[in-house]
């Protein structure tokens, strides 16, 4: 049974990898498409802010809201006992 599961996992991994490689081929294209009008690039600071700092801040805000909600429930359950 373990060999069957390993074979199935290998087939799924290989299929997923192949599909990802096939789907990323347009990203490697060297020719521009008709109507392609890219905007100006963003700086390194903007890139780090957008893809590193912003997700961390959003995570902390969501985690803080969850903890505040959890604390209020704990206080209500302790008062009712």
Describe the structure.
This protein is mainly alpha-helical. The protein has one domain (3-24, 44-79). 74% of the residues lie in helices and 0% in strands. It is built from 2 helices and no strands. The chain has helices at 2-24, 44-80. The longest helix is centred in the C-terminal third of the chain and has 37 residues, at 44-80. The radius of gyration is 24 Å and the shape is flat. The relative contact order is 0.04. The mean pLDDT is 85.
In short:
The chain is mainly alpha-helical.
Order of helices and strands: HH
Main sheet properties: none
Number of domain modules: 1
Can you tell me the residue ranges where pLDDT is under 50 for at least 5 consecutive residues? none
Strand content: under 5%
Radius of gyration (Å) = 24 Å
- Helix count, per DSSP? 2
- Report how far apart the termini are: 51 Å
**Shape field:** flat
- Please identify the structural class as seen in this structure: mainly alpha
Q: Give the integer mean of the pLDDT values.
A: 85
Secondary structure: number of strands: 0
Indicate the percent of residues in helices.
over 70%
């Amino acid at each position: 049974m373990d060999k069957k599961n390993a074979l199935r996992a290998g087939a799924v991994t290989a299929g997923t990898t192949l599909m990802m490689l096939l789907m990323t081929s347009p990203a490697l294209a060297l020719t521009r498409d008709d109507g392609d009008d890219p905007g100006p690039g963003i700086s390194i600071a903007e890139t780090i802010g957008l893809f590193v700092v912003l997700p961390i801040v959003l995570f902390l805000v969501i985690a803080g809201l969850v903890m505040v909600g959890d604390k209020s429930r704990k206080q209500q359950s302790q008062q009712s006992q």
